[in-house]
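Help needed: design a sequence for this.
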């Protein structure tokens, strides 16, 4: 098959019609600067092109490509990327001397071996490209601030082979999307500020044989046969096992990067040098199976049906955003052992750990890898696969009453406030569009936001292998240790409301104080609950629950926190790339601050049989599945700060560790922007723990009414000089075994004053005068009886936890 090549010098596109029509009504607008036309082609250049010839178009931006803005505009608000530039760039982020941005677009046609006509489309970069947007805004009457500046340096491409472009009737479509050696930069404010970046960013999504088409006003992307518990026959009725997996069931994927922190060097605003410091490494690698993804019309919703905020209810008014759903299982070692078409690279793995020194010849680092992921428990309609998220909505909302309503903490249905209370739950809500006067600006409800809403998400999987990966300075992993242990973090019944607003803090040298600036303010509301079989009340549910545990996968037993439920809420949460002050590495990094936050965690500490155990049977009445040790209920309410910082290269305490620090000011209610806060402390205990303010409750499972409770805890806490350090083999001569060290200083009361003052000085709307309040436990209780109280005026504690292989443990004889 012949191909013809067309070369252009400069291309500009202007779209003013809806990008998606019909059910998907959001619009994409591109306002481009004036550009010259494509290079003229004479008749002889096209004389040999026919319907069966391939076509190659080379695109080269000799002077760069640019656009004034790209806007996504659903019905009520808009998100705008402003001043977009596309240029060539060097591998370290240098613009000077780089080749022009260039790409190749190919179109081809042919037939498969069975005679099915196929179309092949490809778009690939010819060199490294930078796409930069000067600002990201959600304009409203009172908010003209920006979320910040973004730049993405990368090479990559996309290939599609299908019977047409979209076709639900063809199940052998091939799709590959890939980004290689990327650097995704993010900065708040001008180029004097620090940035964070996803360095060595790799993204890969490959479907070898699958379906890509449109069905029921949804774009469907499917590989294999996702399990459907309601199917009575056919491939979707078969539970995925190692014996029925096929090569066509796979999606090969990768998401891998180092999170780093740096700043402008010379004239280059985004350049990778050894002045940058690593925070952590993160990676998803391997394959998933029997997967389906759908993109649909409809964003957030308004209105209650039968007293509940039901996204599919008859009274729900849906906006013009997007909805997304996903379902899949993970390829594990059992699948690989049973099928010779699979290899070790197909095992799904999660990698975490240190970064190497940035831009250094020394590429040594230590990571740990969680592998051999498998389904937790039996498959049901609510959890048909290990990963199942039936509704993720992404929308741009106007803040003037638009939003899906709050969450009912303690119940499986998100009732309105009165119905939630009568059902035994607690209604928690954060009003979208409202930003308090903390950071030098305020909005009474009119600020537009990027909304991300999740309902009924299920992550019911656990890891059965832990590996230690030690990479030497040449970049090769030379020491791998594997343990028959796993991490269980099965999360059940996930609901979330996230609202992201433009705005943040900046230092004003003229006034020598912090004022309003660019950045991100977030309202965060997230819950995960272990519910009964009717999906109503929180209870113990070993087969379908939120479990945070450590597993001995050789014995198929686990220990930790079972049947957990938690809610995380943060009102007006500032997410800040904080500049570093001098050589104080703990002073800079990714800083998260909320003036009004809540964390409530309920769980049973104990152990149980894992789903792989031969006696695992959640319905058994003769074989106990779990052993319950203690019921735990922890509730914290107040002001919170958490900062992740790069390591000090001169530190003798460790190499490339993740630094952290933080603060809590419990009982510090600064506004009424979040419903569901503390009420009626006089009835603490007699009317339930929700009336006890910040508290810690521990009870024997057989007598929960006789709980030991520390109630109405107030005061200030600071956590300083924290570090998470993964130590490699032989890194410390006195203790050569590999280990993980988690250490920090804890300061209470007056001892926390200096650290809390430093934090509050960056928040113009909150005074630091009263920082350093004593820690007061107002009530120490046994059941409903008050035994007294406690006051801690000031204290300092050093904490250090070391985790290391059992072979290195001190021998113990009972």
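Sure. Designed sequence:
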């Amino acid at each position: 098959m012949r191909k013809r090549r067309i070369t252009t010098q400069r291309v500009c596109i202007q779209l003013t019609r809806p990008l998606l029509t019909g059910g998907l009504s959001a619009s994409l607008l591109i306002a481009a600067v004036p550009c010259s036309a494509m290079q003229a082609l004479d008749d002889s250049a096209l004389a040999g092109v026919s319907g069966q010839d391939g076509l190659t178009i080379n695109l080269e931006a000799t002077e760069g490509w640019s656009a004034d803005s790209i806007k996504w505009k659903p019905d009520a608000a808009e998100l705008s990327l402003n001043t977009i530039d596309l240029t060539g760039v060097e591998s370290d982020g240098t613009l000077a001397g780089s080749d022009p941005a260039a790409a190749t677009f190919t179109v081809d046609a042919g037939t498969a071996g069975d005679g099915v006509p196929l179309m092949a489309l490809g778009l690939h970069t010819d060199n490294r490209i930078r796409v930069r947007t000067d600002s990201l805004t959600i304009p409203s009457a009172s908010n003209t601030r920006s979320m910040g500046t973004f730049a993405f340096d990368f090479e990559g491409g996309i290939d599609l082979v299908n019977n047409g472009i979209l076709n639900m009737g063809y199940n052998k479509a091939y799709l590959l999307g890939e980004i290689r050696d990327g650097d995704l930069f993010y900065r708040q404010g001008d180029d004097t500020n620090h940035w964070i970046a996803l360095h060595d960013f790799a993204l890969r999504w490959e479907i070898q044989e699958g379906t890509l088409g449109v069905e029921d006003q949804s774009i469907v992307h499917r590989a294999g046969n996702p399990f459907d518990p309601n199917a009575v026959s056919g491939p979707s009725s078969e539970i995925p096992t190692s014996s029925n997996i096929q090569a066509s069931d796979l999606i090969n994927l990768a998401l891998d990067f180092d999170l780093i922190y740096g700043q402008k060097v010379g004239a280059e605003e985004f350049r990778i040098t050894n002045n940058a410091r690593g925070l952590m490494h993160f990676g998803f690698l391997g394959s998933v199976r029997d997967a389906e993804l759908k993109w649909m019309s409809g964003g957030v919703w308004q209105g209650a049906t039968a007293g509940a905020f039901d996204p599919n209810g008859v009274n729900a008014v849906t906006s013009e955003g997007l909805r997304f759903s996903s379902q899949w299982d993970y390829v594990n070692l059992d699948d690989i052992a049973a099928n010779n078409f699979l290899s070790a690279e197909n095992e799904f793995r999660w990698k975490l750990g240190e970064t190497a020194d940035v831009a250094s010849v020394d590429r040594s680092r230590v990571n740990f890898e969680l592998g051999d992921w498998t389904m937790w428990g039996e498959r049901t309609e609510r959890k048909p696969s290990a990963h199942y998220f039936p509704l993720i909505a992404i929308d741009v909302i106007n803040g003037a009453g638009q939003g899906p309503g709050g969450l009912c903490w303690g119940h499986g249905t998100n009732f309105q406030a009165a119905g939630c209370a009568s059902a035994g739950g607690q209604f928690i809500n954060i009003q979208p569009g409202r930003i308090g006067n903390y950071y030098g600006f305020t909005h009474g409800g009119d600020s537009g936001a990027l909304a991300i809403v999740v309902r009924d998400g299920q992550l019911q999987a656990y890891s059965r292998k832990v590996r230690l990966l030690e990479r030497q300075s040449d970049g090769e992993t030379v020491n791998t240790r594997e343990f028959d242990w796993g991490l269980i973090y099965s999360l059940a019944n996930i609901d979330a409301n996230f609202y992201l607003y433009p705005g943040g803090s900046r230092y004003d040298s003229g006034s020598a104080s912090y004022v309003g600036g660019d950045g991100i303010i977030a309202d965060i509301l997230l819950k995960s609950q272990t519910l009964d079989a009717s999906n109503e009340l929180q209870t113990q549910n070993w087969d379908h629950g939120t479990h945070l545990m450590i597993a001995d996968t050789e014995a198929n037993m686990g220990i930790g926190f079972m049947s957990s439920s938690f809610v995380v809420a943060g009102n007006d949460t500032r997410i800040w790339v904080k500049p570093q002050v001098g050589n104080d590495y703990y002073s800079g990094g990714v800083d998260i601050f909320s003036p009004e936050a809540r964390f409530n965690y309920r769980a049973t500490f104990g152990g149980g049989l894992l789903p792989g155990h031969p006696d695992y049977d959640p319905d058994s009445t003769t074989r106990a599945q779990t052993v319950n040790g203690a019921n735990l209920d922890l509730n914290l309410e107040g002001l919170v700060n958490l900062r992740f910082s790069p390591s000090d290269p001169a530190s003798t305490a460790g190499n490339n560790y993740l630094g952290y620090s933080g603060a809590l000011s419990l009982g510090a209610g600064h506004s009424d922007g979040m419903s569901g806060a503390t009420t009626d402390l006089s009835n603490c205990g007699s009317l339930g723990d929700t009336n006890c303010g910040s508290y810690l409750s521990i009870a024997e499972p057989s007598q929960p009414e006789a709980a030991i409770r520390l109630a109405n805890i107030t005061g200030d806490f600071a956590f300083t000089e924290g570090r998470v350090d993964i130590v490699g083999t032989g890194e410390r001569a006195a203790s050569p075994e590999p280990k993980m060290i988690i250490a920090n200083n804890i300061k209470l009361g007056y001892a926390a004053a200096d650290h809390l003052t430093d934090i509050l000085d960056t928040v113009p709307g909150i005074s630091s005068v009263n920082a350093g309040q004593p820690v007061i436990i107002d009530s120490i209780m046994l059941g409903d009886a008050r035994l007294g109280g406690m006051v801690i005026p000031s204290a300092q504690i050093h904490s250090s936890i070391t985790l290391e292989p059992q072979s290195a443990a001190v021998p113990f004889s009972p």
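The chain is about 5% helix and 50% strand.
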